[in-house]
Amino acid sequence: MSDRIVKAEVLVSSPTRNFVTLRITTADGIVGLGDATVNGRELAVASYLADHVAPLLVDLDPGRIEDIWQYLYRGAYWRRGPVTMAAIGAIDMALWDILGKRANLPVYQLLGGRVRDAVPTYGHAFGWDIPALLDAVDAHLAKGAKHIRVQSGVPGLDKVYGVSKDPNYEPAGRAARPSEERFDADAYIRHVPKVLAAVREKVGDDVHLLHDAHHRLTPTQAARLAKSVEPFNLFWLEDVTPAEDQEAMRFVRNASTTPLAIGEVFNTIWDCQYLIENRLIDYIRTAVVHAGGISHSRKIYALAEVHGVKAGPHGPSDISPIALAASIHMGASTHNFGIQEYMGYADLVHEAFPHAWSYDDGVLQPGDAPGLGVDIDEGLLSAHPYTTAYLPVARRMDGSVLDW
Ligand code: CS2
Ligand code: MG
């Protein structure tokens, strides 16, 4: 048949940071793109795709999107985890891209059409101290932001998650080994309420504030923090405990009314099921790339809708403009979509991945190009080859390893 898959190629590149891009081509020349980037483990996904999965795609019918998903998930026998699910995610995105191009429709239309005028977003404001953070908040307000994530340094610590001297924050350091940083949870828990009080005082009640605790508190510490920040009426407190310890969220839930978001490290609906069904969270944060693509993310969002949980997908600069496009198409067409993380990209990334989606005045639009509406500048990607980079490793003040 003319529409069989004839080629599946994996492109690893590093236009300011590493990305893994999948390109699927059909017999009648339609090209679908997917993002398979897992920050700090890019080559593992590239090999899984190139060496084990891409050869199996040749001659398959690209229109059998769900069947290919099940074939790759159940047929592998070994399943779940960020590497396999990002590989499946990239293939799924590329197949939806092909379907849209074949139907001459944007993916959001294939998913049921718009349910909102625009996709709301939040960006990252950070500063080493409170005055620097307030300046960063000002910059976001000047761009029309209504939702702002705020992260600051902690007195006594020389490195803290989410705070960088580079405006284009990229946590993965280009080096042969991960950097290491010490974390003092008590100092952090004491400092966050002071930071949020200063920001709330500055922005008033109408701007939504978010904060990411980034996986590193014990259940009791997490409950203490969630309760201490109640007066600042956060939009959400994110990753307040390591996501695997799901019962820990019941501690936090019972201690506070602060809305909770978790799940950027999850990669299947089974990772999300307990927290959603027990209403222990308010937002599920899975990224389209890491959670098996559009087809699987739809199932996660549908389960969440049943239990009053909204989608708040992960969208930092370490998912590519292709995965962001997929997330925006889902945001435009999913009823219980809450908010899209959007950090923005360096100019070179926008050039390397020309896209129909657009950002303005605090919201994203998917664009109406057929499919996902993203292309690649292969010459530019080839000019920026993969460079070894690792996310940092965190340690407690006594030197024992902590979740970063
Ligand atoms: C963070 C991420 O954006 C977030 O919510 O948790 O920046 C995360 O640290 C990176 O994606 C890790 O690669
Ligand atoms: Mg996060």
- Average pLDDT score: 97
Summed up, the domain count is 2
Biggest sheet character: 10 strands, mixed
The separation of the N and C termini measures: 49 Å
Q: Using the 3D structure, state the CATH architecture of the largest domain.
A: Alpha-Beta Barrel
Q: Looking at the structure, what is the overall shape? A: globular
Total count of helical runs of at least 4 residues: 13
Return Rg in Å.
20 Å
Order of helices and strands: EEEHHHHEHEEHEHEHEHEHEHEHEEHEE
Enumerate the distinct ligands. Answer: D-mannonic acid, magnesium ion
Fraction of helical residues: 25-40%
CATH level 1 class label of the largest domain: Alpha Beta
The total strand number stands at: 16
Query: What share of residues are in beta strands?
Result: 15-25%
Uncertain runs are none
CATH superfamily of the largest domain, by name, is: Enolase-like C-terminal domain
CATH fold assignment of the largest domain: TIM Barrel
Structural class: alpha/beta
List its traits.
404 residues; Enolase-like, domain 1; TIM Barrel; ten-stranded mixed beta sheet; 37% helix; globular; binds magnesium ion
Would you write up a description of this structure?
The structure is a single chain. The chain has helices spanning 42-57, 65-74, 82-103, 107-110, 130-142, 185-203, 219-228, 248-255, 269-277, 293-306, 321-333, 347-352, 378-382; strands at 5-13, 19-26, 31-35, 119-127, 147-152, 180-183, 208-212, 236-238, 260-262, 283-284, 310-311, 340-341, 358-360, 363-365, 393-396, 401-402. The strands form 3 sheets. Strands 4, 5, 7, 8, 9, 10, 11, 12, 13 and 14 form a 10-stranded mixed sheet that branches. A 3-stranded antiparallel sheet has the order 1-2-3. The chain has a 3-stranded mixed sheet with strand order 6-15-16, with no helix packed on it. The termini are far apart. It is an alpha/beta fold and 404 residues long. α1 (42-57) packs across α3, α2 packs antiparallel against α3 and α5 crosses α6 (185-203). It is built from 13 helices and 16 strands. The chain folds into 2 domains: 5-106, Enolase-like, domain 1 (2-Layer Sandwich); 110-369, Alpha-Beta Barrel (TIM Barrel), CATH 3.20.20.120. Magnesium ion binds at residues 212, 214, 238-239, 264. Magnesium ion is lined by residues 212, 214, 238-239, 264.
